[in-house]
Design goal:
Elements lengths: L9 H65 L11 E4 H6 L16 E8 L2 E8 L2 E2 L9
Antiparallel strand pairs: 1-2, 2-3, 3-4
Length: 142
């Protein structure tokens, strides 16, 4: 019986090394994809919780924005200059009946704020409650 005593050759070494490297590459790509998917799911859960926690305040901002638009249209207020802004404080909207009292949904304290109208399509409402302040809120505008 004749045995092959040459062992592994370079050809066998290169083939098996290539197979092993390709398997490692596929496994690492699969694992990185799983990690990326897991991290994005965690981020979306955190984002959804933040949105859900602030949703009542976003609703208050929308109520105030709509009241400001109605106020401006009823007072025939036109913004014609390119840099002009109309700032309507919460107190004025409340006193003229465009708003009911804005109450903090979490502790029933009264909120305050103002509406900034830059054009008919660019209107922002800013509120300040005990548990929430709109980003870029400027207290001297009240």
């Amino acid at each position: 019986m004749k045995l092959n005593n040459h062992g592994w050759g370079y050809k066998s070494l290169i083939i098996w090394s290539s197979v092993f490297i390709i398997a490692l590459l596929i496994a690492s790509l699969w694992i990185s994809n799983l990690v990326r998917r897991y991290n994005s799911d965690k981020k979306s859960d955190k984002t959804n919780n933040v949105v859900d926690a602030n949703k009542p305040y976003y609703d208050l901002e929308n109520i105030m924005r709509n009241a400001g638009i109605e106020y401006a249209s009823n007072h025939n207020t036109l913004i014609t200059l390119s840099n002009a802004e109309l700032i309507i404080p919460y107190d004025e909207l409340y006193e003229e009946g465009y708003l009911d009292k804005l109450m903090d949904p979490k502790n029933e304290d009264e909120c305050t704020g103002y509406v900034v109208i830059k054009s008919s399509s660019d209107t922002d409402a800013y509120i300040k409650c005990s548990g929430y302040i709109t980003e870029d809120y400027y207290s001297r505008m009240e």
